[in-house]
Hints:
By secondary structure, chain A is an alpha/beta fold. Chain A has a single domain, classed as Rossmann fold (3-Layer(aba) Sandwich). Chain A contains 9 helices and 7 strands, in the order E-H-E-H-E-H-E-H-H-E-H-E-H-E-H-H. Chain A has a 7-stranded parallel sheet, sandwiched between helices. In chain A, helix 2 links the parallel strand 2 and strand 3. In chain A, helix 1 packs across helix 7 and helix 5 packs parallel to helix 6. By secondary structure, chain B is an alpha+beta fold. In chain B, 25% of the residues lie in helices and 23% in strands. Chain B contains 12 helices and 21 strands. In chain B, the strands form 5 sheets. Chain B has an 8-stranded antiparallel sheet with strand order 16-12-14-13-19-20-18-21. The N terminus of chain B is likely disordered. Classes of the chains: A alpha/beta, B alpha+beta. At the A-B interface, helix 2 of A face strand 2 and strand 5 of B.
Amino acid sequence: MKVLIVGATSAIAEATARVWAARGDSLYLAARREALLQACAQDLRLRGASAVGFERFDVLEHAAHDAMLRRAADFLGGIDCALLAHGTLADQAGCASDPELAVREIELNGLSTAALVLRIAQRFKAQGKGSIAVITSVAGVRGRASNYVYGSAKALVSTLLSGLRQELHASGITVVDIRPGFVDTPMTASFAKGPLWASPARIARDIAAGIDRGSAVVYAPWFWKWIMLAIRHIPEFVFVRMKL
Amino acid sequence: MTEQLTFGSWGGVFAPRQSVYAMRDRTATLPRTDGSVLPYGLGRSYGDSCLNDGNALIRARDLDRFMAFDPATGVLRCEAGVLLQEIVEFALPRGWFLPVTPGTKYVTVGGAIANDVHGKNHHRDGSIGHHVPRFEVLRSDGSRRECSADDEPGLYRATVGGLGLTGLITWAEIRLQKVAGPWITQRAVRFASLDEFFSLSEALERQHQYVVAWLDCSARRAPDARGILYAGDHAESPGALAAKQPFSFPFAPPFSLVSALTLRAFNALYYRLPRPSRVPCDSFFYPLDGIRNWNRMYGRRGFFQYQCVVPEGAAGRGALGAILSRIGASGQGSFLAVLKRFGAAPAVGMLSFPRPGTTLALDFPNRGGSTLELLASLDGVAVCAGGRVYPAKDARMSPQSFRAFYPEWEAFCAFVDPKFSSSFWRRVTGGAAMPLRHA
């Protein structure tokens, strides 16, 4: 498989890249931090990837999207699968007191992702195949006081993916919405961890399997599907009184 | 990232409060922290040597990338957060294995170096420090020091076995050993006294790469304790293994499941089980890794592990007998007691634990004062015999004992990074000790 990974140095993306490297896939990595990109690329080559290319890429620079996609396609000889894993975990309290910070978070996690997804969809439509996988979050399922800015950006992406999936269904292009729960990554290093927390390697196996199956929505790990089903159905008059 | 939370150690006798900082890029500078920092790998040290109560930890586990592998020499260069398990997974299919491995593969490379870990092949191959020709240490002043026996030899000798106090190990080179496949041919021989252990062990060490003994101290026949010696070698024949998910201890029960009764029953059964002759290397090296979180069986108060080494010769053997009698008399026994003769190779590190002699390791459920008194009296025997106790396992040795055990500690101090510290280090250099957990 020929895979483009955006936000490739995030812990979840890197763990997923290792699953693909072990299968001998070709990978093209795009991310902001060059030193980390180099370290990841060298690691993936040793783990068995047949080719690894990379470039410094900032998803906020929309004008650079097309050029990056072209270089990725040139390097890989076409793209079979694109995994979008970039993002930041906004500090909710900071966003609530500084609306401009909130907007920047939505721009990065929501709008820039939407722009990139649509550009990839255009390419895949032209080539008549492909698999688009985007890491959203269980936080996008229902807005909760603890992280609704982050959640609303993710919800934007989830809704976009849902519509895109319907549009592209007949053309053989799959659109996978990956919704991880709590993941033990450097982004959450300072959080107290309970039994619901999963390792990036565990999430990575679920992501790779979901893309192989062409699933529409992948909760990772699986039990979040039922937790979010329950949360979605809590009546509003109860929900507003809960601390979540 | 500065929120307070708990990162524990394996024995579970402490409840530290520490801030945790992520470190994912080996080329980055150290995080800025209030107070001191300590690198934290997987927390498999038993006591407080991997803890930094009231201060900060650097989560080094995320530095987990392979950097280079030379299939001609078997030298692997990787970041320090890579697990030994990940190295085994990488190396075995390519015909290589760890040069030295402790009893668990769930430790990081950095942690293995910082504790200069040993394995069942110490009599032949020494400890891990003999197989890491080069590594980089990132200091709090921002300098990066590439250390080997020739470059920065002082910092090299201080960092091997240096308990993470000399700076952050960012990457290391490990010289792997060539093996035919994942199988170990194993022999098991029973012994019925310490004298018999010594004569059998000596003979087995001459023939086999791996030798270790399991000892039943609960049989109340000390010092003539019974046990089984295991000897093993990498099998000549190749072959693949099926992966399996280990069983996990789901929670810590409110009381310890390890009592005198379950102990005697377990040991009696274990003594009589037949031994297969060819076993997967996982079950030979890592029997306890088959049960995730086995430490939880000791209940919420946790447990101590006591590991000491006493020198060769009549005095050392006498000390070993005295230690076993005291344990037998105390009735505080142990689920698993391990006995192993170390080889003569001088250790690399200033604070390395291995030295020529015989090492004994046992677990003790935390029963508070009576357990502490017993272990302190064992320290006394070890000090008199010229032995030492393993800091990676320790939660309570006195500063006086530490100095007697590690005469190079003063030379070591010169290499400690001024921003780095640990709860263990403060305790053995005269500072306050962290309180033990009472359930």
